[in-house]
Amino acid sequence: MLKKYAVLAAFLLLSQVAFAQLKYLNFNMGVNGGYGQLLHKTDFQSTPLEALYDFIIDLPQTKDLTWQEFLDGYDIKDRFGQPRVGFTAMLTYKDWPIKAIGEAMSSTSSYTRVAYSVTMGLGKDIYIADSTWYFSFLGGYKLVLKDYGFGANTIVNSVGRKESREDLAQFFGPQGSPIGRPSGDLFTVRLGFARTLDWYYRWSAGVEAYYELDLTDKLVRNSRMTTYGAQVFVRFKIFGKNLEPVSRYSGQGGGRRN
Questions:
Q1: Which helix (H) or strand (E) holds 193?
Q2: Closest by Cα among 81, 41, 98 to 225
Q3: At the topology level of CATH, where does 27-239 sit?
Q4: Digit-coded pLDDT (tens) for 151-182
Q5: CB atoms within 10 A of CB 103
Q6: Distance CA 122, CA 134 (A)
Q7: For residues 243 and 200, is the Cβ–Cβ distance under 8 A?
Q8: DSSP alpha helices (H): ranges in the chain?
Q9: What is the chain's alpha carbon radius of gyration, rounded to the nearest angstrom?
Q10: In Å, what is the CA distance from 153 to each residue of 47, 54, 76, 163, 173?
Q11: pTM, entire model
Q12: Taking the domains of the chain in order of start, what are their residue ranges?
């Protein structure tokens, strides 16, 4: 009985401490839009393209077609770009240089599909000048939970010629995972520059460049999710410690005050 009371008391104490820390959390929502380049480096001979090649060389008029000629004929590359749009949610604690981000963005393989991911690492917003402008950075681990565009869409959009893409899209269905699982472990680096839009520093807009290196074991998935690009964003602080409005022309240097 005493043990149960001790466990209950410990639980209540920890709960109280946890709730007391909620006031130090900062939660931001954002809308992003930009362009990303996917460097998937797929071995196309291990994909359904091999079956298409075999079908073509069985035809009398193309029986001498080499694999490289096939790739050149369809203008098939191991990288391509896609526009990207979506939403982000960012959580920070006090002024600690740690950021946790959840994302629902259009896939790097197809802007018509969505990809879900979470990122956590070292990062901070560094205000400069009169504190209306700030730099942001983040470096850490990104887990792609599921990229619904990674797979058949990756192969199809690797084809440079529009007519060939349409033909190839009909050769095999968009279902399944022809180049491996649509999730992965990445290392990400982000650098941004933004401006606050209101006196309370709750709204901000800016631009951000990013690079994401796929660390997934090649025995698990040979094709890569490595990508780089840039995006513009608008963010709004949902809750968290606010800043006192300070006149930017008050002669006080416009500094931030907690």
A1: strand 184-196
A2: 41
A3: Porin (2.40.160)
A4: 888 988 898 877 777 777 666 555 557 888 99
A5: 20
A6: 17
A7: yes
A8: 2-21, 49-57, 67-74, 152-156, 162-171
A9: 24
A10: 12, 21, 13, 15, 9
A11: 0.82
A12: 27-239
